[in-house]
């Protein structure tokens, strides 16, 4: 089973269709080889996905790539945590049905991944109906010009929003609002962090003129930023009107667009629980002596751990010989691996 496809199909069906099971099966069967094949069953689809399939089927492939990259980034960011962004289908579905900070992070990174992939495809000339962003031509000064190919993040933002938020346009309950807030947090983690890049021109590198363009952060940088937002995520409670949300206490400052928000405390993810989607930490590798959540004490939830010794062959005593050679000896090194009980 391809976990990345599972991830995308779950995201797609939670995002886009009211009939969860139909489209879930649709995507699961049709995505693996050719993503545009997903669009063949257009008649059974609803809303924005149907529109995109009809008019811009090539976009679906890019969005799928974005969701897959987002999932890889989620696994990287959570590799040392009890919940490691696993894509086991049932578990991920459960996690996404709740309102915890983990849910918020997955929503934010997915919508960031989709925005990133669509924008990048646009810059690379892979999409017909968008080009580099040239609007900044006017803002030229004496020493530099906007003449490079700026990432067209407005296009990526708009398409990602259409795709991810489309289904919820007519809904307004606090759960939906939390989700839409986190989708937006993901998209703005890109749009608010564009950087100017320049190239020098002029005789012998004098840099008398420069060509500049705006570049998106890498998905790794986005992942790092969103992980910090996850660590400082803001708890909210439903407001009296039943639709909007408020900070969970009078002294807590209202979250900004960039913040990840949540309504429900996370389970501890220590042991298996089918209803929360927790797989437990039995069998996970932990780091002895680390006081953080990757350390055996916290990772194994006090159950203890088993230590396995492995021997590994590696290069050692390397010497540099003039010129230009490096010679090494081969050593056997002992390596300790700790695994939660
Ligand atoms: C699973 O988690 C739910 C919600 O936290 C809790 O109410 C329930 O008791 C847990 N079930 C088990 C078997 O631990
Ligand atoms: C994530 O955790 C699950 C169970 O806790 C484990 O089976 C899986 O191997 C872990 N994945 C990675 C990439 O560490």
From TrEMBL:
Coiled coil: none
InterPro entries assigned: Wnt, Wnt6, Wnt_C, Wnt_CS
Residues spanning the signal sequence: 1-23
Alphabetical UniProt keywords: Developmental protein, Disulfide bond, Extracellular matrix, Glycoprotein, Lipoprotein, Secreted, Signal, Wnt signaling pathway
Record's GO cellular component terms: extracellular space
CDD domains linked: Wnt_Wnt6
Keyword Methyltransferase: no
Organism domain of life: Eukaryota
GO terms, biological process: canonical Wnt signaling pathway; cell fate commitment; cell morphogenesis; muscle organ development; neuron differentiation
Pfam family, any one: wnt
Function as written in the Swiss-Prot or TrEMBL entry: Ligand for members of the frizzled family of seven transmembrane receptors.
Family per record: Belongs to the Wnt family.
Protein name: Protein Wnt
């Amino acid at each position: 089973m391809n976990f990345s496809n599972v991830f995308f199909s779950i995201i797609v069906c939670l995002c886009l269709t009211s009939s969860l099971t139909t489209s879930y099966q649709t995507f699961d069967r049709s995505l693996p080889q050719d993503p545009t094949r997903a669009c063949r069953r257009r008649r059974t689809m609803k809303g924005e996905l149907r529109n995109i399939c009809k008019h811009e089927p090539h976009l679906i492939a890019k969005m799928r790539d974005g969701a897959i990259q987002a999932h890889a980034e989620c696994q990287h960011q959570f590799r040392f945590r009890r919940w490691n962004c696993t894509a086991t289908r049932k578990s991920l579905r459960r996690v996404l049905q709740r309102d915890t900070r983990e849910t918020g992070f997955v929503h934010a990174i997915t919508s960031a991944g989709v925005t990133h992939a669509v924008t990048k495809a646009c810059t690379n000339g892979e999409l017909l109906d968008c080009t580099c962003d040239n609007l900044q031509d006017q803002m030229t000064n004496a020493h530099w010009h906007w003449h490079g190919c700026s990432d067209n993040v407005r296009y990526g933002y708009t398409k990602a929003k259409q795709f991810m938020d489309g289904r919820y346009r007519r809904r307004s309950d606090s759960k939906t609002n939390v989700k839409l807030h986190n989708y937006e947090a993901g998209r703005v983690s890109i749009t608010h962090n564009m950087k100017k890049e320049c190239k020098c021109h002029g005789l012998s590198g004098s840099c008398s003129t420069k060509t500049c363009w705006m570049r998106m952060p890498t998905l790794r940088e986005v992942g790092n930023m969103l992980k910090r937002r996850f660590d400082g995520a803001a708890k909210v409670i439903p407001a009296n009107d039943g639709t909007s949300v408020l900070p969970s206490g009078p002294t807590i400052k209202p979250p900004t667009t960039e913040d990840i928000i949540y309504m429900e405390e996370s389970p501890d993810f220590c042991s298996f629980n089918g209803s929360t989607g927790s797989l437990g930490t039995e069998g996970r590798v932990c780091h002895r002596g680390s006081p953080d959540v990757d350390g055996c004490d916290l990772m194994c939830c006090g159950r203890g751990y088993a230590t396995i010794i492995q021997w590994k062959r590696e290069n050692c005593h390397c010497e540099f010989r003039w010129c230009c050679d490096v010679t090494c000896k081969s050593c056997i090194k002992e390596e300790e691996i700790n695994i939660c009980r």
